[in-house]
Design goal:
The protein is mainly alpha-helical. It has one domain. It contains 12 helices and no strands. Helix 2 runs antiparallel to helix 3, helix 7 packs across helix 8 and helix 7 packs across helix 9. The longest helix has 35 residues. The chain is globular and about 65 Å long.
């Protein structure tokens, strides 16, 4: 029995096995992520890219929050052992566990982002001062960075929604490198959507989730050290 256990550990601990384990997890998580966002992805792809459809795009984006949260949870639960892989179980556990908390963050964020997008889309017709557009863009950027932090925190930790909101805002300046990383990923995601399609972005979902976790590591390490003990 000891020899068998040792052989299994040796099989699951090598560099090739570790690489295969993370690739397998990312592939499974990607498939489940696609399944989770499919109810919104299909109508989003069919919608015309017109400002009048902004509210419908926001509605189509509702499934993204819970699915992305589950992906973050499943990837964070990764162990570099090819003999101990349960990515599908981790994904659905994260989905069920985080659903309520994520929606309490995600829905207000989508609603606020839609209002800002509509104001910017019809800015000329509104006849408001130019500085108002600059202010709206700054608010949108700050909200996007805050939302990225809040999504990671909700996915990995068990805090009340108000505490998630406070921590997400606090770490915008506490870990500026992580904040810039989140914004960079959002720029990449926006560029993929603009120059390709929402479907292409969805196909890169698990990789973007992995990069978001890596980018947010300073924040999650600080939270684990200072707020969970």
């Amino acid at each position: 029995m000891n020899d068998l256990t040792a052989a299994q550990r040796q099989f699951g601990d090598g560099p090739l096995s570790r690489a295969a384990a993370i690739v397998y997890r990312l592939l499974v998580v990607e498939l489940l992520l696609l399944a989770g966002v499919l109810p919104g992805l299909v109508p989003a792809v069919l919608l015309a890219r017109d400002p009048s459809n902004i509210p419908f795009y926001a509605a189509c984006a509702i499934p993204i929050g819970p699915a992305l949260s589950a992906a973050l949870y499943a990837i964070a639960a990764h162990r570099p052992d090819l003999t101990d892989l349960h990515p599908a179980a981790d994904f659905w556990r994260g989905y069920r566990t985080n659903l309520g908390g994520v929606l309490r963050i995600w829905l207000p964020l989508l609603a606020g982002s839609a209002v800002i997008a509509i104001n910017l889309a019809y800015f000329t017709a509104a006849g408001v001062p130019g500085w108002w557009a600059v202010l709206l863009v700054c608010v949108a950027v700050g909200a996007a960075a805050w939302g990225g932090n809040a999504l990671v925190i909700t996915s990995l930790f068990r805090f009340r929604s108000r505490d998630v909101a406070r921590l997400a805002a606090y770490f915008l300046t506490r870990t500026p490198g992580a904040t810039l990383g989140v914004l960079a990923l959002l720029v990449v995601a926006a560029a993929i959507t603009a120059y390709a399609s929402e479907a292409v972005l969805a196909l890169a979902g698990s990789v973007l989730a992995l990069l978001l976790l890596r980018t947010s590591r300073p924040m999650t390490a600080a939270i684990e050290k200072e707020f969970t003990r």
